[in-house]
């Protein structure tokens, strides 16, 4: 494969439609939050994701609570 044919993740993301980038971003956040919840469980804590406002108010509407 020629070097000009190679593309990185940045090139792929830049070529995506805005809505697709947003969906991918939320999927990434879900993976990160899942990892955080696994870490909390390994520390002997319980955790939950709480939706505290509707998405129409803010797309950043989840809170990770550890107890």
UniProtKB/TrEMBL annotation:
<dbReference type="Pfam" id="PF05206">
    <property type="entry name" value="TRM13"/>
</dbReference>
<feature type="domain" description="Methyltransferase TRM13">
    <location>
        <begin position="13"/>
        <end position="65"/>
    </location>
</feature>
<comment type="function">
    <text>tRNA methylase which 2'-O-methylates cytidine(4) in tRNA(Pro) and tRNA(Gly)(GCC), and adenosine(4) in tRNA(His).</text>
</comment>
<dbReference type="InterPro" id="IPR007871">
    <property type="entry name" value="Methyltransferase_TRM13"/>
</dbReference>
<keyword id="KW-0808">Transferase</keyword>
<dbReference type="GO" id="GO:0030488">
    <property type="term" value="P:tRNA methylation"/>
</dbReference>
<comment type="similarity">
    <text>Belongs to the methyltransferase TRM13 family.</text>
</comment>
<dbReference type="GO" id="GO:0106050">
    <property type="term" value="F:tRNA 2'-O-methyltransferase activity"/>
</dbReference>
<keyword id="KW-0479">Metal-binding</keyword>
<dbReference type="GO" id="GO:0008270">
    <property type="term" value="F:zinc ion binding"/>
</dbReference>
<keyword id="KW-0949">S-adenosyl-L-methionine</keyword>
<dbReference type="InterPro" id="IPR039044">
    <property type="entry name" value="Trm13"/>
</dbReference>
<keyword id="KW-0863">Zinc-finger</keyword>
<keyword id="KW-0862">Zinc</keyword>
<keyword id="KW-0819">tRNA processing</keyword>
<protein>
    <recommendedName>
        <fullName>tRNA:m(4)X modification enzyme TRM13</fullName>
        <ecNumber>2.1.1.225</ecNumber>
    </recommendedName>
</protein>
<keyword id="KW-0489">Methyltransferase</keyword>
């Amino acid at each position: 494969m020629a070097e000009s044919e190679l593309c990185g993740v940045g090139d792929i993301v830049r070529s995506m439609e805005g809505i697709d980038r947003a969906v991918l971003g939320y999927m990434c956040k879900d993976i990160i939050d899942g990892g955080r919840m696994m870490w909390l469980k390994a520390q002997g804590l319980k955790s939950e994701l709480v939706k505290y406002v509707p998405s129409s108010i803010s797309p950043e509407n989840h809170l990770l609570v550890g107890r």
